[in-house]
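User: Please run a holo structure prediction.
Assistant: Happy to. Please share the sequence and the ligand.
User: Here you go; the ligand is PXG.
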Amino acid sequence: MQQITNHLPTAELQALDAAYHMHPFSTQDDLAQSGVRIITSAKGVMLRDSEGEEILDAMAGLWCVNIGYGRDELAEVAARQMRELPYYNTFFKTSHVPVIALSAKLAELAPGNLNHVFFAGSGSEANDTNLRMVRTYWAEKGKPNKQIVISRWNAYHGSSVGSGSLGGMKGIHAQGGLPIPGIEHIDQPNWWAEGGDMSPEDFGLERARQLERKIDELGEDNVAAFIAEPVQGAGGVIVAPETYWPEVMRICRERDILFIADEVICGFGRTGQWFGSQTLDLTPDIMTIAKGLSSGYQPIGGSIVSDEIAAVIGATEFNHGYTYSGHPVASAVALENLRILEEEKIVDRVREETGPYLKEKFEALVDHPMVGEAKIVGMMGSIALTPDKGARAAFAADAGTVGYMVRERCFANNLVMRHVGDRMIISPPLVISKGEIDVLIDRAVQSLDEGMKAVKDAGLWASA
Ligand code: PXG
């Protein structure tokens, strides 16, 4: 077989990719037609492709490369750990130093009484753990009927059978017989798209109280937990109105419902604190973690659980775990990533310096004629595209048509800024400098200008 290396022409790599590689969340046939962009290396916030183009990655990979690309320290830790102990399991009365050290560090960083970590290989796996853990918790407490988990439409919690069911993405539910039983969804706090004539404050309360109504409808004795992202990520960076979370917290406490904060995106500095729950003043019983835990350098996820849950689960045999739970190389790399985030004060810088700088520039995008609202928390932000700001109108074209056109302009202008429907989203590496933020915003404005022209030229500048 031929050697496949960086030196092959792009077209050949694209053809081999189309022939043999199946892409996640993609239409293979379309990709084979258009050809994929081949990323060959990366440093800091910049990607390089097989044509030698430099691309500003305003998505930190898939919301995960918090410390930026190319940190040798992580490579060295991985190599050292692979030589010393590349693998051992933690199932049968054994443990190892990297997983012990990482668990202790996470207990120190996590707020309140969240002091115990169950590891997984990804966010999806961790949410599958959570589903089984909360149900087991209530069964062990003598309340075996408390089994239903409430989630939100347009939430993303993963794409395995369990986590895809927990999520509220209709496209995921439509394939493979999801959702599984025992999961209920309520509406999301997306004021721009769904708030109608209500003020954001009233709408936030109304959406929170849907949780209360749903619990009453199902019966408090049948509900185990509520799961939510502090800021919805994959759903389009939806920031809830300020009234929403205090009300949700009140309801969870009063109704004796566990709260799972899915921190897979919000965790590890993304919102300007170690966890989104701290930024939004939430008190979870479990936090799901992945992505920024290792800055994507190794696949690792997990659940940080409260003293109370750990005590109840600890009294029985929990028949759950993954071959790679607490993988030594992934654990060592995650620990080194946390050291860098902490010692280089990257989270503090997001909160106090670069985050506010980005916020000012990003929110000013609302002055663009095609941008209706701009929302940003720390380093995750989104803008809503609209043909009519005053009316908060959606485009008449199918949702995502216009967003895709703007995304294509971003791609052409060497900026990775994604679209979710007709919202444009960013989530750059947390190490992005002020100068790089300027480049990001310049390229975004240019792409919006070009995108708006393309939308008008295509006759799509019309309200739904
Ligand atoms: N929870 C949240 C909040 C996530 O964002 C997961 C769980 C699942 O993690 P794993 O590691 O199993 O992928 C995620 C993942 C997108 C996109 O298009 C977002 C994610 C994954 C894939 C695509 O924005 N988030």
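Residues 434-457 form the longest helix (24 residues).
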